[in-house]
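Input structure tokens:
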């Protein structure tokens, strides 16, 4: 859980997710054996204040063609706790 807002948090989240993914293959191992990874983050602040949703899923997709995915091996889920708590009270 991330308690304080920091500008570097998105990069740090991606860094840790990438390290886990890159740490899987042993030397000479087939890349097809890489297992998908999922990062789940619970920031205790609003990362996306202009969006009312509290849950987000980020993947490797083409910007111009969102239906085109490079791979589904890496996903990052973000659940903004303040928005979730607000929704639960209503």
């Amino acid at each position: 859980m991330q308690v304080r807002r920091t500008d570097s948090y998105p990069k740090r989240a991606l860094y840790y997710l990438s390290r886990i993914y890159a740490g899987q293959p042993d030397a000479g191992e087939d890349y097809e054996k890489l297992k998908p990874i999922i990062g789940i983050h619970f920031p205790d602040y609003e990362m996306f204040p202009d969006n009312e949703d509290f849950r987000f899923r980020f993947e490797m997709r083409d910007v111009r063609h969102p239906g085109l995915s490079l791979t589904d091996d890496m996903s990052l889920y973000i659940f903004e706790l303040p928005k979730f708590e607000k929704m639960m009270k209503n």
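Residues 9-24+35-63+70-89 form one domain. The mean pLDDT is 91.
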